[in-house]
Design goal:
This protein is α/β, with parallel strands linked by helices. The protein has helices at 3-13, 19-33, 48-60, 81-94, 109-113, 118-141, 154-157, 164-170, 182-191, 217-233, 262-279, 296-303, and strands spanning 40-43, 69-75, 99-102, 147-149, 243-247, 252-257, 283-288. It starts with a helix and ends with a helix.
């Protein structure tokens, strides 16, 4: 067993000792995969996973100024203004500079078709951009090489819809949280004082599109505006609530909310129906939230 494998095993074995031990092992494991590099570029979204990775790199880095840790946010129509704002706030809290780069997946025919490989196409464009950032950082710091990181956790690895993991493998992206569950990620983030430790996951807007619904800027904007309406009007909503507006075929919307919010959502449905039609939707359905509900159809068909 390698040192990295032994350390990752300790993350689970020592968890019974409590969160401080969990965090200590995460820092030690992160240090073991840093490869003595001086430049660490993180695929950053503002979510709790990538935020924790930045914090762990800071803790494990010998550079007290943290300038070697570079969170990078890919900017495209699939990233909501709300998510960009959160990413800026979290990096400010962490005391690191956020780099924002425009990505070009919106011009990729595979991405636009959204027929099952859009995530792979998107992440390929993202990691290509991050590699350029890393190369630039290495030249400026006069240090050879460096590493790319993401916030993939142990639960993500088990999800067959996450084809972006293939792109991560192709670009040799390091995943310090690959042996850490989402619950453990949240516990560690809370312990380290991250402001978004309990925020609901918020994947890209493209993930709201049913397979076959094209990933155009217009469709993504419709979804973003519709979700703003839901969040503004739904009683009981907060940052920890799961809210999705899915776009199905023929531009029909499906609002998904946590089960505890479903009754309040029912009372808003007629209002949403009118508001969504003004955005270009043909109608609205309502359902209890299920992660990846419109992406799993392809997996189910392939398994049949």
């Amino acid at each position: 067993m390698t040192q990295s494998q032994q350390l990752s095993s300790n993350l689970v074995e020592n968890d019974s000792e409590g969160t401080p031990a969990l965090v200590a092992n995460l820092i030690e494991y992160t240090n073991s995969v840093m490869k003595n590099s001086k430049n660490h570029v993180v695929a950053f979204s503002g979510g709790v996973d990538s935020s924790l990775v930045v914090a762990l790199l800071q803790k494990a880095s010998e550079d007290a100024s943290h300038q070697a840790v570079k969170p990078v946010l890919g900017i495209s129509p699939a990233v909501s203004s709300e998510q960009i704002k959160l990413a800026r706030e979290v990096t400010s809290h962490l005391g690191v500079q956020l780099t924002e780069v425009r990505t070009s997946e919106g011009r990729d025919a595979t991405y636009i078709a959204n027929a099952g490989e859009a995530c792979l196409a998107c992440k390929t464009h993202l990691y290509t951009s991050l590699r350029l950032v890393l190369d630039h950082a290495s030249i400026n710091s006069e240090q050879d090489g460096g590493s790319l990181y993401n916030g993939t956790n142990a639960d993500d690895v088990k999800d067959p819809t996450r084809l972006g993991l293939i792109a991560a493998s192709r670009f040799d992206v390091i995943s310090p949280l690959q042996h850490t569950t989402k619950d453990e990620v949240r516990r560690a983030a809370k312990y380290l004082g991250l402001p978004n430790w309990n925020y609901a996951a918020s994947p890209c807007l493209r993930s709201r599109l049913a397979l076959g619904v094209q990933a155009t800027k217009h469709h993504l904007t419709m979804i973003e505006e519709a979700e703003k309406i839901v969040k503004e009007k739904l009683p009981g909503y907060n940052e920890a609530s799961n809210i999705r507006v899915r776009m199905l075929s023929k531009r029909r919307a499906r609002v998904e909310v946590d089960e505890k919010l479903i009754r309040d959502a029912e009372s808003q449905k007629s209002f949403w129906n009118e508001s969504f039609q003004n955005l270009g939707f043909s109608g609205v359905d309502l359902k209890v939230f299920q992660s990846g509900s419109v992406s799993r159809k392809l997996v189910e068909r392939e398994a049949a």
